[in-house]
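Hi,

I'm pasting everything inline rather than attaching a file, because the server keeps stripping attachments. The sequence lines come first, and each chain or strand is labelled.
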Amino acid sequence: MNIRDMIPFNKNREHGMTRTERSLPPQPTLTPFNQLWNDMDTFFENFFGEYPSSRQDFSLTPRINLSETDNVLQIEAEMPGMEEKDIELAVDEGHLVMRGEKRRECNENDGGRRRIECSYGRFERTIPLPDYVKAHEAKAKYRNGVLYVEIPKDPKRSEGKRIPVTAG
Amino acid sequence: MNSDTLTRREENGTVTREEKRFAFTPKCDIWENQNSVYLEVEMPGVTDQNVDVSLEDGILTILGRVEPLNLEGYSRVYAEYEDGNFERSFRISDEIDEEKISATMKHGLLRLELPKREAVKPRRISVTAA
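And the predicted assembly:
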């Protein structure tokens, strides 16, 4: 067997072509893999319409940003349209757990949604914490649809311990 | 993301253009009943002071400015989203009574009510014996 017959996606191959392949117009820039990619893109575009991208995802899991100063670690989590009472925060064995339920305010009998982009329901996200923070002293506030959690750092532990390396 | 410049309407009616920067497209739910069409727009980080809803030539434009919470002295160590403004426009149909559009902002969620004109609301016509 010729080695080129064993390459599955060789667009220039002349042997072993099926009838379908031969009847297709030549598309020199499209490998079968690219074609599949394009087909998938078209499928999703048709399905979701002009879906606003880049700040979108379907998941209800809140997205987070982490910032820090010398003394504090701050976690911001986007969760618009919630009530404080529906947000639950817990610290558990070096993890920060955010749970919540986002409720839909409209009545289903109102005639139904024309367009739905927001997600609703319960979510949970667990964030591992570094061991130099005092997790039990965390403070949280919910403001303008963003949850801010501030956790003080433990200056003693953040220094770490230097381990000397000796010749041996 | 839109790369359009953001326009800002001042009290005296002049429109100033802010520096060119990106605006995110907020997520939006739309539903309706017999009396109104409702929009719910998710704009986390936007206060009621920083949201601007305008209507011009049948285009409803929503603009939300995000002012990052006092991040002075903080350095960002991990990010899943960027701070940025929100902007989105909708074409409003003739059946909406533009004078009666109302908006409320709570917890980063803008809720708009667009009441329909009386003329397009379904009505029952009573039939009397002649």
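Residues 95 and 119 of chain B are 8 Å apart (CA to CA).

If the labels don't parse on your end, tell me and I'll reformat.
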